[in-house]
């Protein structure tokens, strides 16, 4: 294929790639528990009993590998790692999507997929733990790929790290250990996507020589001062007036409320609307829906309610007018960071008032008034509303092969990623992809 015909085929592939990527979305029939000892497992871990460490904490590891000062231990379960996990969450660096309860929710829902084998990796240097990496080996076609646990359902990844962990080892040692452990547990390729920097822009210890630029930037901004100051800094006077007029229009259209769900009924009402709105968006505009399967929806429900609603990893906000949920915003809040996980809105008679944008504005205002916030991110994916509040920040992907088959996959992945990046950043090509998605959505109705 050459010329315009080749370009058209390329854009078509990118337009459907997210759909293809999710073609293995879980259904109840795909749920199965994998164990190393199960001879009928579709993709069991290779036995490696000689690799069991001697220390009591490390004695349950099913695999280990050492490279210089770095030693990695792989575990099938979280049990026994909670104390270290909570210490790193509290006293070290931990992103919003590697917290203990987030990973627990993933393990009991999406992590049960027969094509997914969780592996929790503790990182040791000079004989002491300095990090934790919640990972999983996932089958994609004939390839086995080591990724972050739930990588396709989060906006950024960091791992968990003790302060100044990178000073305890050489980056080449960590890369060699990761590649070696991945190969030992049967992975052909390491693909740790959307690596974000640490607090204040400090380097992530996973920023290694094998990193390449991620396709999607993270939309993030530092916070200081009040919400009113942020609103003035990010929106021109006319934009502020326009958004406030839309909010007034919603308030005048019937009984108006913005709620942060605090009961099981409120959570279920808002999430049912969220799932329906995201599904409608996919059908009408071709926007890929990451929450379409039962397992995906169970994952979100668990995030919003476990271990209890008051301390659950995910907060569920809704904007309601005239007895209907018009928009839903899912957020993750740590002590100093607010992360926008996902947003949805209804396409009805009140869409002209942009209920999603009004909800976002009010959530930011409420959260900033509680105090303590130093940073805001609205996730990945370039949307106009994100640029109105935040700025794009380049993320990195750590990719390396561990086998000859993995080398083939790595070459193809880098080539596809380069094309996707070029299309995403093109003011001409990306609108063509979006229009193509819309046509595909309409033709599939």
UniProtKB/TrEMBL annotation:
Residues 239-387 form the BioF2-like acetyltransferase domain. Keywords: Transferase. It comes from the Bacteria. One of its GO terms (molecular function) is transferase activity. InterPro entries: BioF2-like_GNAT_dom. This is CelD/BcsL family acetyltransferase involved in cellulose biosynthesis. It comes from Roseibium hamelinense. The lineage of its organism: Bacteria, Pseudomonadati, Pseudomonadota, Alphaproteobacteria, Hyphomicrobiales.
């Amino acid at each position: 294929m050459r010329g315009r015909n080749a370009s058209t085929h390329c854009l078509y592939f990118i337009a459907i790639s997210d759909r293809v990527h999710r073609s293995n979305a879980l259904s109840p029939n795909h749920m199965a528990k994998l164990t190393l000892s199960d001879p009928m497992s579709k993709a069991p871990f290779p036995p490696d009993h000689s690799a069991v460490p001697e220390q009591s904490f490390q004695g349950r590891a099913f695999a280990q590998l050492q490279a210089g000062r770095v030693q990695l231990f792989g575990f099938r379960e979280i049990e026994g790692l909670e104390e270290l996990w909570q210490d790193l969450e509290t006293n070290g660096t931990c992103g919003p999507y590697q917290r203990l309860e987030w990973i627990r929710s993933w393990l009991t829902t999406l992590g049960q997929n027969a094509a997914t084998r969780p592996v929790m990796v503790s990182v040791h240097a000079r004989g002491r733990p300095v990090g934790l990496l919640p990972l999983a080996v996932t089958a994609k076609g004939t390839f086995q790929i080591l990724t972050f646990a739930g990588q396709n359902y989060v906006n950024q990844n960091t791992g968990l790290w003790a302060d100044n962990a990178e000073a305890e080892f050489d980056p080449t040692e960590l890369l060699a250990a990761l590649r070696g452990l991945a190969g030992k547990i049967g992975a052909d390729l390491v693909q740790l996507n959307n690596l974000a920097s640490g607090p204040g822009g400090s380097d992530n210890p996973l920023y290694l020589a094998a990193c390449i630029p991620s396709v999607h930037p993270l939309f993030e901004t530092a916070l200081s001062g009040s919400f009113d100051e942020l609103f003035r800094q990010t929106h021109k006077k006319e934009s502020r007036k326009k958004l406030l007029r839309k909010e007034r229009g919603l308030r005048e259209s019937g009984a108006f409320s913005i709620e942060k769900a605090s009961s099981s009924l409120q959570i279920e009402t808002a999430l049912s609307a969220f799932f329906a709105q995201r599904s409608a968006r996919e059908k009408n505009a071709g926007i890929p829906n990451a929450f379409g399967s039962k397992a995906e929806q169970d994952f979100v429900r668990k995030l919003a309610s476990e271990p209890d609603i008051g301390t659950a990893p995910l907060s569920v906000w809704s904007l309601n007018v005239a007895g209907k949920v018009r928009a839903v915003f899912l957020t993750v809040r740590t002590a100093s960071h607010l992360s926008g996980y996902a947003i949805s809105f209804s396409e009805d008679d009140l869409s002209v008032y942009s209920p999603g944008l009004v909800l976002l504005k009010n959530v930011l205002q409420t959260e900033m008034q509680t105090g303590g916030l130093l940073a805001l991110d609205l996730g990945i994916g370039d949307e106009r509303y994100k640029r109105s509040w935040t700025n794009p920040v380049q993320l990195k992907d750590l990719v390396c092969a561990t086998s000859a088959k993995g080398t083939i996959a790595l070459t193809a992945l880098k080539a596809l990623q380069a094309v996707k990046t070029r299309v995403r950043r093109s003011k001409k090509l990306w609108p063509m992809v979006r229009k193509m998605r819309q046509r595909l959505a309409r033709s599939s109705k």
